[in-house]
Amino acid sequence: MWRAVCSKRGISTCPEYAVSSRAEANQLSTRWTVVAGLGAPTPILENSGGHALLTFLFKSCDFMLAFIRERNTSQSVIDIFNQLYEKLGTAPFKTLFPIILTDNGSEFSNPKALEFDAQGNRRSRIFYCDPCASFQKPNVELNHEFIRKILPKGSSFDGLTQQGVDLMMSHINSYSREKLNDKSPWDMFGFIYGYDILEMLGQHKIAANDILLRPSLLK
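Request: output the structure for the sequence above.
Response:
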């Protein structure tokens, strides 16, 4: 299912990028993969003004992060990776983002800038879904439905701020899920990775009675 960026970008001879087999890629991505969703392949996440959301879904707990971008470009994705790397620090970043699965869009056209820091140290590994195979990352599409409740299709992103996006994701991540034994993604993420990381990511627990998954949340 997964294909390494080395084989997609014609740099398979570089040992730093090597993944020995498809079996190894599958084994690596079974549990701890972070699934990246981009504005281009998912219409609700991009508007006509050019603003777009970049989302990350943590498969282990259905926890999702989202970041507003002024343009749906490769550089905007690189900037977010670098900001997260600087904010979290090397070890926490590598713990959270060991493997990233995404669509093979132009936004990920510079994998080396995403997989390595400015000093050339590896910080993550990126794999792409097969073309026209969104079913290979179904959980991210399901979680985008929560975003659609707050930002219906056709909504303008021009007035969105990162603070507003963080608030939206705090409400979504605080919503309990049957598949998590009625725990919320916020609770599960905190248990696995630490509640201090949630604070650093701007994610806060919203009481069940206060959760609002409607457009009025951001009014």
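Residues 44 and 148 are 7 Å apart (CA to CA).
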